[in-house]
């Protein structure tokens, strides 16, 4: 049946929802939306002040329309972020955005006046209403002050800008955390990565500090102006009060307040009234002769020339009656200001005076007994808008500087040390034996020593260092591989890894007897030897695996050789690398012998009383070195009570057999044929085949080689460091760097220790021994004895020659089934 026309099954609903959420989030985090919201934020901060500062009333509707659009965009931003952004809803930034959106409403009269009316309030207006009194004007002034303080909450949009600016860093931190969680092999590791991620800890603490700084600064900005007493210009109100009573002094109507006395005296003359009203038009001038700071637009008060009746005063003549000193504004006059007035309500000040006795509505003759004056305060409105711009910028700078300063201090004092500790703990959780890198000592680190975090950091580092020292570099590597290959936990039932290694066994001769003699000084003695052995091993690329009862196991890991490897004659070729590693192992052995021989603190044991009493005056600290190459299984051995990293292989036993063979052959450095085969030509010429042997746990026989040494005193330069090259004096000018591309083969030509140890052995000895060895292996023992005697005449105490001679003499003649080898 053909299924090609079948529709693919749709994904799970939760997958489709997740994809949709991600698409919406990508749009929100995109460059266009980010730039748009950043621009809208800046407009929300400065738009209304720009309106009052640089435009007139005719542009207001366009500004109000832009505020409506802003409010709509803010609501959309809050809505979609609540849908798709985890942990946003009801978070700090959520309420931040809600408050910022609400703070836009007072700037939109179309909405705010309607809301104010619904709740029984009075929108701010320059018109005269039935409720317009001095008290209502005072209440409106307080409301205006509170409203202006409330508008400062819009400064929280600066934090939105901060959020946009730091969004990229936040996204990168989250991405790194997600990648770390993907790499984690278990849920436990993922949770640990999430909870212990240092960038996450730093971000949380920085955000918390920033939020609190913002809240404190905004509360100060909002409430301090409300709590402060401000000086205001009361000249319009006091002048209006004076004009009211001067004008009312001419009233004669008996049915109005304070006009019932027909014999009352007029308080003013005609000239005085003109001068008084004229001076009132200039009541806002700063000094006499200047123009009024806030020009008078309209007056409605008792007219002295009209028997104290209240009506508009449209113009004022000059005191000399030569002309008009003031005219009311045609479009901005009247109890109700027309739409033709070029000024906004906030750009006009309405001064109101009502006699104190008339504040009670039951007093006869007080109906509509109020005086009004309207002033142009556009310059004050512009100054306030300009100061608002400066205030917004200043507070924004304060917020930024405070947030950065607090965050920087927190970063330096707390986050950086905690981050270091978290990184150390996290790395130790992944790999308990990972080496901790210590920072270089500086003045800051000396100051930090008094901090608790520094003490904790140092404690964790010390614990880690103790673990690493306990297991050793090689053991730490084995344990790390064991733990990192699974769930980050030690699994004793996990198979080991098969590796190829160079095995070097260093054995301290008579160590048990020496320990009995030295007793409590034994650790000092063996540690002095360990210092030399470990230093030489590390200098030439080896790893110290184990120290047991005066016996040291050192290893060199060999790279695996494949068919794809090149035949290049440099260290990029794995075969060349194996040769170089074998050379390094032999160099390490020879340098260890040389360093022990010339170490004064070790040679001082020759005269130790307890040593002399046991060994006599001829004692010297001797070591035996056996070197072999073979495979081994590296793994962790033990139980939940105790573990040890170890190598398991019969080839390890070969190394121990080689050091035991000193009793038979008397040679200090013994090597197997497997190891000899990897050496370079120069290294091989320094070695001598001394026998063919077998062990009962390996199927094949193998050659036995030695590196011959003499008792010659070895010179050492003053600046010499343990294990390093000491050039022959005649070759001191040779540049070693020109040879290093081929490894350490140069050591067998240039080094004073390697060359000097064999310098006094005559060549005739080697020739005679070689002939003796060939005859010995081929079964011609009589001829072999003759060459052995000849070799011994050149080197009387040669151990291998004496061993073969002894073996021939004991056996007499070779058996018919002579295997051409003997047991090691």
UniProtKB/TrEMBL annotation:
Keyword Nuclease in record: no
Listed transmembrane segments: 28-46, 62-80, 92-112, 209-227, 385-406
Keywords recorded for this protein, A-Z: Membrane, Transmembrane, Transmembrane helix
Superkingdom assignment: Eukaryota
Organism taxonomic ancestry: Eukaryota, Sar, Alveolata, Ciliophora, Postciliodesmatophora
Keyword Membrane: yes
The protein, known as: Guanylate cyclase domain-containing protein
InterPro entries the record matches: Nucleotide_cyclase (IPR029787)
């Amino acid at each position: 049946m053909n299924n090609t026309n079948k529709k693919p099954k749709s994904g799970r609903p939760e997958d489709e929802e997740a994809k949709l959420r991600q698409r919406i989030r990508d749009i929100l985090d995109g460059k266009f939306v980010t730039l748009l919201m950043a621009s809208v934020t800046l407009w929300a901060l400065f738009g209304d002040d720009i309106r009052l500062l640089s435009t007139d009333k005719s542009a207001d509707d366009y500004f109000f329309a832009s505020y409506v659009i802003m409010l709509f965009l803010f609501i959309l931003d809050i809505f979609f972020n609540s849908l798709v952004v985890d942990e946003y809803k009801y978070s700090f930034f959520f309420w931040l955005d809600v408050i910022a959106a609400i703070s836009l409403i007072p700037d939109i009269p179309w909405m705010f006046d309607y809301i104010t009316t619904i709740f029984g309030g009075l929108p701010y207006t320059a018109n005269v209403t039935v409720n317009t009194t001095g008290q209502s004007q005072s209440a409106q002034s307080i409301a205006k002050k509170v409203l202006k303080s409330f508008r400062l909450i819009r400064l929280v949009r600066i934090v939105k800008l901060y959020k946009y600016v730091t969004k990229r860093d936040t996204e990168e931190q989250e991405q790194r955390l997600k990648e770390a969680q993907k790499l984690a092999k278990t849920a436990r590791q993922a949770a640990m990565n999430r909870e212990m991620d240092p960038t996450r800890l730093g971000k949380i603490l920085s955000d918390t500090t920033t939020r609190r700084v913002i809240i404190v600064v905004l509360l100060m900005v909002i409430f301090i102006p409300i709590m402060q007493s401000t000086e205001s210009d009361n000249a319009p109100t006091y002048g209006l009060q004076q004009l009211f009573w001067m004008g009312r002094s001419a009233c004669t109507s008996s049915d109005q307040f304070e006009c019932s006395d027909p014999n009352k005296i007029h308080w003013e003359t005609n000239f005085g009234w003109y001068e008084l009203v004229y001076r009132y038009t200039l009541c806002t001038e700063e000094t006499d002769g200047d123009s009024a700071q806030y020009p008078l637009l309209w007056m409605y008060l008792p007219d002295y020339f009209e028997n104290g009746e209240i009506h508009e005063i449209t113009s004022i003549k000059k005191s000399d009656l030569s002309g008009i000193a003031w005219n009311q504004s045609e479009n901005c006059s009247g109890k109700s200001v027309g739409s033709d007035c070029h000024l906004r309500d906030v750009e006009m000040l309405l001064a109101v005076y009502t006699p104190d006795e008339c504040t009670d509505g039951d007093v006869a003759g007080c109906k509509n007994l109020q005086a009004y004056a309207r002033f142009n305060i556009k310059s004050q409105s512009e100054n306030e808008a300009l100061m608002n711009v400066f205030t917004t910028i200043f507070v924004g700078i304060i917020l930024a500087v405070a947030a950065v300063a607090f965050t920087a201090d927190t970063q330096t004092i707390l986050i950086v040390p905690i981050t270091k500790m978290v990184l150390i703990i996290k790395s130790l959780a992944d790999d308990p034996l990972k080496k901790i890198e210590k920072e270089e000592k500086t003045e800051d680190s000396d100051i930090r020593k008094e901090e608790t975090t520094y003490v904790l950091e140092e404690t964790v580092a010390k614990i880690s260092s103790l673990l690493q020292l306990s297991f050793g570099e090689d053991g730490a590597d084995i344990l790390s591989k064991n733990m990192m290959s699974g769930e980050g936990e030690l699994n004793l039932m996990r198979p080991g890894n098969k590796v190829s290694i160079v095995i070097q066994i260093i054995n301290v001769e008579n160590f048990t007897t020496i320990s009995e003699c030295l007793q409590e000084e034994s650790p000092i003695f063996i540690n002095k030897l360990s210092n030399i052995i470990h230093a030489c091993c590390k200098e030439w690329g080896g790893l110290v695996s184990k120290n047991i009862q005066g016996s040291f196991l050192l290893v060199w890991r060999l790279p695996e050789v494949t068919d794809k490897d090149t035949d290049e004659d440099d260290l990029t070729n794995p075969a060349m690398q194996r040769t170089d590693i074998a050379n390094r192992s032999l160099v390490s052995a020879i340098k260890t012998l040389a360093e022990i021989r010339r170490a004064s603190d070790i040679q001082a044991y020759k005269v130790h009383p307890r040593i002399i009493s046991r060994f006599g005056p001829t004692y010297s600290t001797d070591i035996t070195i056996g070197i072999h190459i073979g495979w081994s299984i590296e793994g962790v051995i033990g139980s939940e009570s105790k573990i040890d990293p170890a190598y398991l292989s019969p080839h390890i036993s070969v190394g121990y057999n080689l050091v035991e063979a000193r009793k038979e052959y008397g040679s200090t450095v013994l090597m197997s044929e497997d190891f000899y085969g990897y050496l370079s030509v120069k290294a091989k010429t320094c070695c001598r085949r001394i026998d063919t042997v077998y062990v009962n746990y390996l199927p094949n026989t193998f050659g036995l080689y030695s590196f011959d040494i003499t008792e010659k005193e070895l010179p050492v330069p003053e600046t010499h460091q343990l294990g390093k090259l000491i050039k022959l004096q005649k070759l001191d000018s040779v540049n070693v760097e020109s040879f290093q591309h081929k490894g350490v083969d140069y050591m067998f030509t240039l080094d004073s220790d390697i060359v000097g140890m064999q310098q006094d052995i005559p060549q005739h000895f080697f020739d005679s021994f070689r002939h003796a060895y060939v005859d010995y292996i081929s079964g011609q023992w009589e001829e072999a004895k003759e060459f052995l005697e000849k070799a011994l005449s050149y080197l009387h105490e040669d151990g291998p020659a004496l061993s073969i001679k002894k073996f021939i003499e004991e056996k007499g003649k070779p058996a018919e089934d002579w295997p051409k080898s003997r047991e090691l």
